[in-house]
Structure formats: C-alpha cells, structure tokens
Write a structure and sequence with these properties.
alpha+beta, Ubiquitin-like (UB roll), 2 domains, two-stranded antiparallel sheet, 15% strand, globular
C-alpha cells in the first residue's frame, strides 16, 4: 500500500475508513466508538498495560489490546460483547483489590478515571481479597505528592516525564505486585536532582496517586496535556 493510504474495516458492525497504521482504539475513537482504557493517552506511545481496551476480532479466538493493535483492511472488530464486559469488570476488580482504593477518602474522589469506569461497568463492590499496601506517602517535594498505595501502574506519569518533559525522572523498581514508581535512583522526590517540577505527572495521573499539594484535583487534571504539547511540537 502507498504511504498514508486508507483502509476500511468494521467496528461493531459499522464500516469505517482510517489511515493505514491507525490503531483499533484510535479508529474507534475517531468514529465515535468509545473503548475503555486507563493507560492510553493521546500524545504518548501506546503501552498496552491496563488491558481494559481488549477487543474481539472475527476469525481469532484471542482478544487484542485495541491501543497497540493496528487496524487492517477487512477486519471486523467487536468492542462491547458480554465476554468483553466480563473481562473488563474482572480487570477493574483486580485493580481495586491490589492496593488501597477507598474512594471516600481519596483526593481524587468523583474525579478518578478508575472510579468512573467501575461505575460505568457496574463494579460497586470488590469481591476479591484486598491487598492493602502501607507505603509511606512522599510529600518531600515542594508541592508534588506521590501516594504509591493508590498507583495503578498505568505508567502515564513515567511516559509523560520521559517523552514530553524529556527528563525521565520517574521510572520503576521491583516487579509484579511490588512494582513501584520511583524518582531518579529511588530518591525521595524532594532530593531528586532531575525533576523540573513541571506538574505533568500530576496532570495525567488517572487516579489519586500523584497530586499537587493544596490544589484542587479539578484544577490539576489535564489529561490532554501530552497531546497538546506533541501537536505543537509537530507543527513547528
């Protein structure tokens, strides 16, 4: 195919045309079909971590992450079957059980993407055994705070720090359920020598894990910041 050629596929029975190389998630979004996700963010490289955007493709028994799967010509995609709803509800259950997600006492209550998806999918209680972590809250920075007990490891903060701000202050340590976001070589945030204090990590955090002390979450949250900056850079 020629560069920038168009392809045609069906999403939930609707025929759509998109540029070759477009992901299923973007193809759906651009045509008014919303697929839930927590890790994906416009302006950042797709990560495929939360697994909420899994979709069905006719002819395959597997489920595919819509955020990292390219749309192909003739593909038939289902985004909202009973099977997918069941998978997504279980994913939300796992996220809610893994750490401390008590909405009533969270700084992001009523402004949390995890909470909103739980409500949307009908997850009104956690049936799994909860694993309550007891990590200390790091408020050593002048105004940025991280509560690792509320982190869902979507890596939006790590990716926006690396790809948009360009300093890569944030990274990960450990593996599996013990994975944590760290600053530099596991320094306290106040002792970080690379953090610019840009606040982008707090703006894109979907939950209440990173926030600005003394500032309302409604004022902080700006998930479009990565897309905004990327678009401006590309238009130079």
């Amino acid at each position: 195919m020629a560069e920038n050629s168009m392809i045609t596929l069906k999403i939930d029975g609707v025929q759509v045309s998109v540029l070759e190389g477009t992901t299923i998630l973007k193809a759906a979004k651009d045509n008014g079909i919303l697929i839930p996700t927590l890790c994906d963010l416009e302006g950042l490289t797709p990560y495929g971590g939360c697994r909420l955007c899994l979709v069905e493709v006719t002819g395959s028994p597997k489920l595919f992450p819509a955020c990292t799967t390219p749309a192909n010509s003739g593909m038939e995609v289902t985004t909202n079957s009973e099977r997918l709803k069941s998978y997504r509800k279980m994913t939300i259950q796992l996220l809610m059980a893994e750490r401390v997600h008590m909405c009533a006492v969270c700084v992001a209550n009523d402004h949390c993407e995890l909470q909103a998806l739980a409500n949307q999918l009908g997850v009104n209680h956690v049936v799994l055994e909860r694993h309550f972590t007891r990590e200390p809250i790091d408020s050593s920075h002048d105004f940025l705070v991280i509560d690792r007990n509320r982190c869902i490891l979507c890596l939006r903060c790590v990716r926006v720090c690396d790809k948009i701000e360009g300093v890569h202050t944030l990274d990960l340590k450990n593996r599996s359920k013990d994975t944590e976001v760290i600053m530099d070589l596991d320094e306290s945030w106040g002792n970080s020598c690379s953090c610019t204090g840009c606040r982008k990590c707090a703006k894109v955090c979907p939950v209440g894990a990173i926030y600005i002390e003394g500032e309302a979450i409604t004022q902080t949250k700006h998930r479009d910041v990565a897309e905004f900056i990327t678009a401006r850079r590309n238009n130079r």
